[in-house]
What does this fold into?
Amino acid sequence: MRSSVSLLLICLLPNLAGAWHSQGHVLATELAVEASQDIMPAFFAQGIETIKHCSVDPDVFKFKTDSRLLSRKESPNHYFDLELFDDEALPETREDFWWWCLRHGQSTGKVGLLPYAIAETTYMLSLALAEHHRWPDNQAIQSKCLVYAGLLSHYAEDACMPLHATVHWDGRVLPNGQSPHTGIHRRVDGLLHRVPGADQVTVDPNSLVPFQSLLAEVFAHIQETHSLVEPLYALEDQIPALDEPFEGPPELVALVEGYLHRSARFTARLYVTALKKSALVTIPDWHEREEH
Ligand SMILES: [Zn+2]
It folds into this structure.
């Protein structure tokens, strides 16, 4: 009896993790892998399905389980509310930023940790690629490169969604600092993979310049994303609901096409950055892997 009641309740709950969100990440990741395929090692594009699959996983890490242990750790990796950070440059590490928050009466959970998630995951991919250079036939190393690339894709694409870079992340913030939860966030999340003209969006491989100063440039990118918040709110009334077709207006279509292009290009630039940095990695003498 209890299980049938639970099932009924589950059926009545809104679908908080609908495929729409996943499909947007999958589409942007596909464009990013295609754009970088002549720069990255051959196994990378051959493993595109694994990269696309794993590009959704950081959202899976936030699913409800019997404990909040993982979801509480993971959630701040997906946003950075710029209005709450008034310094010019980000502290160099997560821990330094934690201290910054403490000094300024903030918390990492409130402000977010997205730039650190992007930079750290880029280095994870870079180290895995360095191992690939040393053991090119090792299948496990290739597999983990694809997994790390998928995780990196997710964070990179979140950094191109304007509502992940603002305190106005689900409607204009209330005077008490809380979100009014107007539902705009879900509506915008649902636009990326439905945008008319998505099949026309391509990324020029020649534009995939590696980042030099990774964390600073990731932060600059999030600042640029923040500048897209107001143009989005200007069209708030015209953003379709999830069960409505997305056919216009042209201004909104152009905005979302821009999000898709920025998402794919930024993600691909991070792949290329990881590859460039992988050549600088020194593998310690004691570290050994299998040849295959
Ligand atoms: Zn996310």
In short: The chain has one domain: 16-278. Residues 16-278 form a domain with the P1 Nuclease fold (CATH 1.10.575). The chain has 14 helices and no strands. The mean pLDDT is 92.
